[in-house]
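User: Modeling request: complex.
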Amino acid sequence: KAGVTQTPRYLIKTRGQQVTLSCSPISGHRSVSWYQQTPGQGLQFLFEYFSETQRNKGNFPGRFSGRQFSNSRSEMNVSTLELGDSALYLCASSPEGPWENEFFGPGTRLTVL
Amino acid sequence: DQQVKQNSPSLSVQEGRISILNCDYTNSMFDYFLWYKKYPAEGPTFLISISSIKDKNEDGRFTVFLNKSAKHLSLHIVPSQPGDSAVYFCAASAMSGGSNYKLTFGKGTLLTVNP
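Assistant: Request completed. Predicted assembly structure:
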C-alpha cells in the first residue's frame, strides 16, 4: 500500500497570503488528521476529518480550516498568513480514527516571510 | 498552560538497558494516552496507547504504565536498541463525554541509545 502523501513538500509564502495544503491518505483510511509542528510549541493537533465531516478540532484560530473529499483526500487552508504560521504541517490517516494506528505523511514545510 | 508535560528533554541509555520515558498531565478529564516516535525528517509514528481503564499495556519491547492518581504515565523500552534513538512524544485526550476529542501533546523527549 502506498503511504500518506502530502503536497507540496515545501512552500514559501508572504504574510497576508493564503495557502492550501493537500493530503492523500492510505487507501481505505477514512480518518485524516492535521498537525502543526514548530520548535517552540512542539506538535499540536489542528483537526480531524472523517467521512467528509470535521469530527475533532484543536485550539487554532478560524484562519485554519480544512475539508475532506468523498475519496478521503483532505486539504488544509490557512488564510491571512502570519510569520508564526511557519511550521511543518503533518497529515495522518487511520482506518477509523482518531489517532490510534495513525500513519503520518512526510509533512509540508511552510515558511512565511 | 501545558497540560501534558515531558520534563526530560533528553535521555541517554546504553544498548540493552531499559529506557524509561516519563510524561505528566494536569487535566483529570484525560482518559486516553498515546506515545509517538519521531525520527529526524520524518513524520511521527504511532507507538502504543493506553486507556484509563487499564494501568499497563504491553507491545513487544514497549510497555506503557499509567498511574491515574499521580497523573503520570511512562513508556518503558526493554531492551533498548540503537534504532530506538528518536524523539518520543506523549499525547493525551478526553475520549468520553463530548464529541470533540482534542489531542494534546507533550514537547517530546530525545532518546539516544548508545551502542
